[in-house]
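Budget justification aside, the reviewers requested a transparent look at the raw inputs and outputs of the sequence design task funded under Objective 1. We therefore reproduce one unedited record. The lines immediately below are the structure tokens for a 102-residue chain.
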């Protein structure tokens, strides 16, 4: 379960940065390559991702989270727990694709 959570965390954080840079990637396998080439990203991003992927400890995860969180102002009209619930658990009500499936 930890492996899956860490993978999804890295993927979601990477997607935020790709969206910020208006950059697409062709598939999950290309995510790290495309992230490495981004012009506008947190300093030390790739090293932090590698640390999270290899150690999977709370300190590395928190460090990557804070790096992405503090990189820019990520505006949201609703608090993140509610947005997560809407995107991941209530999406069946309006037929939207879950964030995890994008």
């Amino acid at each position: 379960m930890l492996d899956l959570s860490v993978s999804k965390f890295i993927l979601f954080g990477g997607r935020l940065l790709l969206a910020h840079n208006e950059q697409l990637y062709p598939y999950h396998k290309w995510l790290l390559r495309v992230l490495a080439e981004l012009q506008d990203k947190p300093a030390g991003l790739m090293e932090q991702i590698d640390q999270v992927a290899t150690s999977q400890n709370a300190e590395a995860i928190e460090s990557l989270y804070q790096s992405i969180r503090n990189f820019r102002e990520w505006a949201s009209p609703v608090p993140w727990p509610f947005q997560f619930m809407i995107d991941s658990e209530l999406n069946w009500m309006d037929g939207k694709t879950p964030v995890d499936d994008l």
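DSSP finds five helices and no strands in the chain. The longest helix spans residues 2-20. Computational costs for records of this kind are itemized in the attached budget.
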